[in-house]
Design goal:
alpha+beta; 33% strand; 7 strands; elongated
Length: 175
């Protein structure tokens, strides 16, 4: 584990302040939940994502959808690409999502570009694809995205499939 060299005092209510630079680097937003782990004399904090619990289902979903429609299929949590299938899998899986995708998620709207269009899925990497981006909504909050990406045009089948996967994930996590 890497030391930051930062020392913080615990206040009388047991609170500590995580420095702004660390919050910015790890993309920890105000009000976001952190998971607490204890190992002997060490306390570790990890960003909590409800989508993390969906790893296995997400992997199976993207593989099934890819086998049916033959397109690249991705699922993200609020920060990273967590499941991928298709020829672009290695390029995106495990990588942080771009600011553009964060804005789409925050706005909670589906984005459809049926013909090739410039998009930034990873920060500072402008690319040209056709795509469907559908937010995963749980209890009114966007907690991830479903993306179907193509080097050719996408249509209604891909759009409906993205809707089904995003709604399934949202409902499944709520339960």
């Amino acid at each position: 584990m890497k030391s930051t060299g930062v020392v913080r005092r615990v206040d009388d209510l047991g609170r500590i302040v995580i420095p702004k630079e660390i919050r910015r680097t790890l993309r920890i937003r105000d009000g976001e939940s952190l998971e607490i782990f204890v190992d002997r004399e060490m306390i570790a904090l990890k960003k909590f994502s409800k989508m993390t619990d969906m790893d296995e289902i997400s992997k199976q979903l993207v593989d099934i959808v890819n086998s049916v429609i033959g397109q690249n299929v991705f699922i993200t949590d609020r920060d990273n690409f967590i499941a991928a299938s298709g020829n672009l899998k290695k390029k995106y899986l495990g990588k942080p999502i771009s600011k553009s995708l964060e804005i789409i998620m925050k706005d909670r709207v589906k984005v459809v570009e049926k013909e090739l269009h410039n998009i930034e899925f990873l920060d500072s990497e402008m690319e040209q694809y056709s795509y469907i981006i559908s937010p995963v909504i749980m209890n009114g909050d966007a907690i991830g995205l479903v993306l179907i990406i193509s080097e050719q045009n996408v249509g209604q089948v891909e759009e409906k499939m993205a809707d089904v996967v995003s709604k399934f994930l949202g409902k499944h996590i709520e339960e």
